[in-house]
Amino acid sequence: MNNQIKQKDYYDFQLQLEFGKRGEEAVINHLSKKEETVDIADLSEHKEFQALGIDAQWIYENPRTNVIYSTFFDVKTDFNVHKTDKLFIETISTDKNKGCMLTTKAEEFMYFDPILGKLYRVPIFPLREWYNKYGRSKEIKEVVNKNYISEGFLMSLEELRDLFCVEAEDMSPLEGIDLTEQ
Predict the structure, then answer these.
(1) Is residue 44 assigned to a domain?
(2) How many folded domains does the chain comprise?
(3) Counting beta carbons within 10 angstroms of the beta carbon of residue 10, is it exposed (0 to 12), middle (13 to 18) or buried (19 or more)?
């Protein structure tokens, strides 16, 4: 694994795969250390869950009510949110089919900003409902890699906070990220 990853390489497919895996590991590790965590299952290597767009399951207890909750989630490692204050929401995947926001069976996206060490828990079903009613008018953005093009839209952190009560949660940034090549 390359320990010193340069930001200019973000759209190289192999590096994106590495970033995504490192992001998944960081989020799972972060959640596993939270006081309210009862259990966490890394499902990212299970083909059945991969096909459903699910990376892990988090079981946690609400400390005020002592009620146990469970959520299946998909980790998105976003290397631009620290610059734009916007998250990229994919609507068309690499094979021109519906993108993860429209197909995943996960309940939440865990968007991870690996530069600033921020985690954003975005509820998928309300986001999908909002998109079907209002979001189709959003400007479409393309993410171009050597091997494919994905499409989606940018949604500001302010919009996410106002619409879905999404707040940033602090966690450790990823190490070995070189921002000097911006």
Answers:
(1) yes
(2) 1
(3) middle
Q: What is the pTM of this model?
A: 0.88
Look at residue 13 and tell me if it is in a domain.
yes
| Tokens 């009613």 sit on residue | 133
CATH number for the domain that contains residue 74 = 3.40.1350
Give a yes or no: residue 91 inside a domain.
Answer: no
- What integer pLDDT is reported at residue 15 of this predicted model? 73
Q: Is 56 a domain residue? A: yes
Q: Determine contact, residues 128/76, Cβ cutoff 8 Å.
A: no
| Domain containing residue 49 | 7-79+100-138+157-172
Indicate the pLDDT class of residue 149, thresholds 50, 70 and 90. Answer: confident
Sign of CA dihedral 62, 122, 77, 114: negative
Provide the residue type at 2 as one letter: N
Provide the residue type at 66 as one letter. Answer: N
Beta strands in the chain (DSSP E): 5-6, 37-42, 56-61, 68-77, 86-92, 108-113, 118-123, 141-144, 149-156, 168-170, 177-178
Share the mean pLDDT of the chain. 89
